[in-house]
Amino acid sequence: MNTIFQTLRKMGRPAAALSLALGTAGAALALAPLAAQAATPDSDRATIDRAVAALRGISTLRANFVQTDRSGQNISGVLTLKRPGKIRFQYQKGVNLLIVGDGKALTMIDYDVRQVQRWPISNSPLGALLDPNKDVARFAKLLPTDTRDVVSLQVRDPKHPEYGTITMIFVRSAAAPGGLQLDSWVSLDSQNKRTTIRLDGHQYGIAVDDKTFRWTDPRRNASNR
Fold first, then answer.
1. Residue 82: which of 188, 184, 204 has the closest Cα?
2. Residue 115's CB: how many other CB atoms inside 10 A?
């Protein structure tokens, strides 16, 4: 069995496994301290706002992904995203694991052991990516990069470190909403477990049926909808 697949099972929740997630990704966000906002330079704030607008500008997205854990093990698959809040991580053939977000919660389904785990999107790093009610910009910090064509945005809620941290990497692309394409993200959970997701083959604005975000419950061999 693939080592990273074993790790996913041991971790139990995709937020830890992907750090992801998208846990990839971000934190349930509350109000940021005014002092922290005032300390952000205007130029940084403008770049942060553009990156957040680019995220919000994605109506649908399909892309290939490669997930890398902290030991360097890779696993691949296809990501499908539909706003508001829906996401699907379909892993490569032979990995009988599925992660689905339905707009309210993230669910990990392990078909080999007939196990289902579910938790609120807002309590995972993916909250920064998926939850339309989260004011990502208020908890975002612009990190330095080697080129103006790359934007690195770190998001964490200092009041809820247990939700993890997500660093999203954007590259300038005329084909992407807002001119910035989500290239990858790095998630760090509360146990400092690091997971990297890299995307390629982005397809924007494609038709995505809501049935994409349904799944078969292995515990009763019936659809969850």
1. 204
2. 14
Class of domain 3-199: mainly beta
Q: Minimal CA–CA distance to 23: which of 175, 204, 162?
A: 162
Structural domain boundaries in the chain: 3-199
Global confidence as pTM? 0.79
Q: Kindly list the distances between the CA atom of residue 145 and the CA atoms of 14, 55, 153, 154, in Å, as whole numbers in the listed order.
A: 28, 19, 10, 12
Q: Are strands 115-120 and 216-217 parallel, antiparallel or unpaired?
A: unpaired
Beta-bridge partner residues of 179: none
Are 61 and 178 in contact by the 8 Å Cβ rule? The answer is: no
Kindly state the tokens that stand for 172. Answer: 């300038």
**Sheet arrangement for strand 194-204:** 115-120, 105-110, 97-102, 86-91, 74-82, 60-69, 194-204, 180-188, 165-172, 150-156, 140-143
Mean pLDDT per 10-residue run, the chain (225 residues)?
47 40 33 38 87 91 94 93 93 93 90 90 73 75 93 86 86 95 89 89 96 91 52
